[in-house]
TrEMBL record, chain A:
GO cellular component, one term: Golgi membrane
An example Gene Ontology biological process: endoplasmic reticulum to Golgi vesicle-mediated transport
Ranges of residues in domain Yip1: 58-210
Name of the featured protein: Protein YIPF
Compartment(s): Golgi apparatus membrane; Membrane
Family: Belongs to the YIP1 family.
Membrane topology: Multi-pass membrane protein
InterPro entries xrefs: Yip1/4-like, Yip1_dom
Keywords: Membrane, Transmembrane, Transmembrane helix
Transmembrane feature ranges: 70-89, 101-122, 134-156, 162-184, 196-215
Domain of life of the native organism: Eukaryota
UniProtKB/TrEMBL annotation, chain B:
Superkingdom assignment: Eukaryota
InterPro entries cross-referenced by the UniProt entry: tRNA_Mod/Golgi_Maint (IPR051521)
Name this polypeptide is given: Protein YIPF3
Cellular component terms per the entry's GO annotation: Golgi apparatus; plasma membrane
Disordered as annotated region, ranges: 1-49
Length: 217, 313
């Protein structure tokens, strides 16, 4: 600090005020209140946030709620339920059964990571986890489609059921792709939107294919 | 209110809010630790406490906490930086516009005429990567007959492994041959060239998985596969000098590329055929029977691939 030793502060310039960092008066109270609140409130707050995001996916409007407060609870729940429903039940030693839980899980997360990296490399302004969040939440229509398919398969597995399932899965696939495009495409430079949308299309296509070709053993 | 006059002479009494202060404190912490290790704990602490003008133990605890936070922050920052630095290495290879991608896709089917002048290859990875993923999706789509669910788990891993293995493995192999034959091509260019060459494969498989005419497949194999192979071969020839080298390089690439298309069609087609056969029994339309010409070979090939991919994964 040798160079600073000969700085002198003139008496005319008032040097006043607080040196300490102003800790806002609300902050300790807030900490206290979220620590002291009942567990039910904490859980309900998180559940409400997740639920709000589900609604945003079902009715995709250009809003930034999904992007601003990203969380991965919703994608985890959706991925686990989809993987559970897609498990082929066959315990036959000759056959593998359907895609196993781990396979679906890995494909979904690996695909989401690849798409995120791709959109970042193409110059996107969205962060890694925000993109994962959006892609995960937009699996919701496909999970609903899977549920419907299972119910239809309970009724029978003929040609008509196949046609119904095809229509349902196609509709859900289009819905998922449109929903995720509505959120993600805005973060790209305008002339490169198609480059980002295509891998998303492929990703949901593969998931839709897994759903459509599922038959319970 | 009071006035806070900063007395420069007593800057030793720091609150640890600037990096220089942290650095100095860190330095003093290190020296302190060394002294402690030598067993002069008490004296050093007292000495430092007095020197820094802080009140003994409380001040020291504060220093340690601040120091630890700085260390953790520094570590996190350097980790994050190395992660982003890795992504940035790939960024220039993804700098494309949609029109460029479309143009390159169409160009990959048009063999160049001028082979005396080294042809330009765009070192771009977006198009090839998307084409490999599309090929994987098309392979999976080819299994749309519902009973292939039985093998679905293995087939998905096999499809991904096959396509990526081909793209990366054959690129590396041809790059190695190019190095031996003194061809002027870099690894990224080779990846790009082979990746775009898969466009022909994608078209062929997409059409022939939906229309199961065998003669149609052979026509597509020769025409579409041949065109994309010719383009790759012409580009490589334009970058290689010497007849023997050209022959080796281009012969290998042509053989591998055409054989891969053949393999993709027959190995996966056979699975569909076999299952359709068991489903429909003797009522199979005649043209579908042609597929059973080489059942032994197809089966062996498919089994070997599955085993190889499973072993490498």
């Amino acid at each position: 600090f040798a160079g600073l030793a000969d700085v002198s502060i003139s008496e005319e310039i008032p040097v006043e005020g607080q040196i300490t960092v102003p800790v806002g008066s609300h902050s300790p109270d807030e900490d206290g209140s979220t620590l002291d609140e009942p567990v039910r409130e904490t859980i309900m707050r998180d559940l409400k946030a997740v639920g709000k995001k589900f609604v945003h996916v079902l009715y995709p409007r250009k809003s930034s709620t999904l992007l601003r407060d990203w969380d991965l609870w919703g994608p985890l729940v959706l991925c686990v339920s989809l993987a559970l429903m897609l498990q082929g039940g066959s315990a036959d030693s000759k056959d593998d059964g359907g895609p196993q839980f781990a396979e679906v899980f890995v494909i979904i997360w690996f695909g989401a990571v690849v798409i995120t990296l791709n959109s970042k490399l193409l110059g996107g302004t969205i962060s890694f986890f925000q993109s994962l969040c959006v892609l995960g939440y937009c699996v919701l229509p496909l999970t609903v489609g899977m549920l419907v398919c299972r119910l239809v398969l309970l009724a029978g597995s003929g040609t008509i059921s196949f046609i119904i399932r095809l229509v349902v899965v196609l509709a859900m696939f289009a819905w998922s792709t449109l929903a995720s495009t509505a959120f993600l495409a805005d973060s790209q430079p305008p002339n490169r939107k198609a480059l980002v949308v295509y891998p998303i299309f492929l990703f949901y296509f593969v998931i839709s294919w897994m759903i459509l070709t599922f038959t319970p053993q | 209110g009071g006035s806070a006059v900063i007395d420069m002479e007593n800057m030793d009494d720091t609150s640890g809010s600037s990096f220089e202060d942290m650095g100095e404190m860190h330095q003093r912490m290190k020296e302190e630790e060394e002294e402690e290790a030598e067993g002069e704990a008490g004296a050093a602490e007292e000495e430092d406490g007095e020197f820094l003008g802080m009140k003994g133990l409380r001040g020291q605890l504060g220093r340690q906490v601040a120091d630890q936070m700085w260390q953790v922050g520094k570590r996190q920052a350097s980790r994050a930086f190395s992660l982003y630095a890795n992504i940035d290495i790939l960024r220039p290879y993804f700098d494309v516009e949609p029109v460029q991608v479309r143009a390159r896709l169409l160009e990959s089917m048009i063999p160049v005429k001028m082979i005396n002048f080294p042809q330009k290859i765009a070192g771009e990875l977006y198009g090839p990567l998307m084409l490999v993923f599309t090929l994987v999706a098309i392979l999976l789509h080819g299994m749309k007959t519902s009973d292939t669910i039985i093998r679905e788990g293995t087939l998905m891993g096999t499809a991904i492994g096959t396509c990526f293995g081909y793209w990366l493995g054959v690129s590396a192999f041809i790059y190695f041959l190019a190095y031996l034959c003194n061809a002027q091509i870099t690894m990224v260019q080779m990846l790009s060239l082979l990746g775009y060459g898969l466009f022909g494969h994608c078209i062929t498989l997409f059409v022939t998985y939906n229309i199961h005419f065998h003669s149609l497949f052979y026509i597509f194999w020769l025409v579409v596969g041949g065109l994309s192979t010719l383009r790759m071969v012409a580009v490589l020839v334009s970058r290689t000098v010497g007849h023997t080298q050209r022959l080796i390089l281009c012969g290998t690439l042509a053989a591998l590329h055409m054989l891969f298309l053949l393999y993709l069609h027959f190995a996966y087609h056979k699975v569909v055929e076999g299952i359709l056969d068991t489903l429909e029994g003797p009522n199979m339309p005649p043209f579908q029977r042609v597929a059973r010409d080489i059942p032994v070979v197809s089966n062996a090939v498919l089994n070997t691939t599955t085993k190889t991919v499973a072993l490498t994964l």
